[in-house]
Write a structure and sequence with these properties.
Structural class: mainly alpha
Order of helices and strands: HHH
Radius of gyration: 14 Å
Number of domains: 1
Shape: elongated
Distance between the termini: 38 Å
Largest sheet: none
Length: about 70
């Protein structure tokens, strides 16, 4: 099986991946500090964490990188 070829969209996907990872770090920091209560209901925060985790995995796949293990799990 041939290896994956570099795509002109790899650098763009890496930038979006970095943005999604920053968003995930922000949400985790909110969750860990209990400041999430000011901005989210518990279900909404869990939904946001799920969505951002999914985005990180998708952008990593598009960029040709291995997805990181889940860090948003409570």
């Amino acid at each position: 099986m041939s290896e994956r070829q570099n795509s002109p969209y790899d650098s763009l996907a890496r930038k979006w991946l970095a943005l999604a990872q920053r968003r995930r770090a922000h949400l985790i920091e909110l969750r860990d500090s209990d400041r999430w209560k000011r901005y989210y209901a518990r279900a909404d925060l869990e939904d946001e964490l799920f969505v951002v985790e999914l985005a990180c995995r998708r952008f990593a796949k598009v960029a040709g990188l291995e997805p990181e293990p889940e860090v948003a799990a409570a």
